[in-house]
């Protein structure tokens, strides 16, 4: 089972990616990134390993056919 310690809140995830919290919310609303919900309060949570994938994809050349930046699994 996944622990809540494996997740980042919106503000922490946004800082981790170097974007604003509103940008991260917009990406989630547009389906570009997956947000999980806290089981008690319903807040958005982001897995750090999924954010690492976004960062890795963003560093690839733009013509890379394996580019999965900001695409949900």
UniProtKB/TrEMBL annotation:
Domain Helix-turn-helix intervals: 7-57
- Stored Gene3D superfamilies: 1.10.1660.10
Q: What is this protein called?
A: Helix-turn-helix domain protein
Q: Which domain of life is it from?
A: Bacteria
Give the originating organism.
Roseimaritima ulvae
Report the InterPro entries cross-referenced here.
DNA-bd_dom_put_sf, HTH_17, SinI_DNA-bd
Q: Per UniProt, what is one GO molecular function of this protein?
A: DNA binding
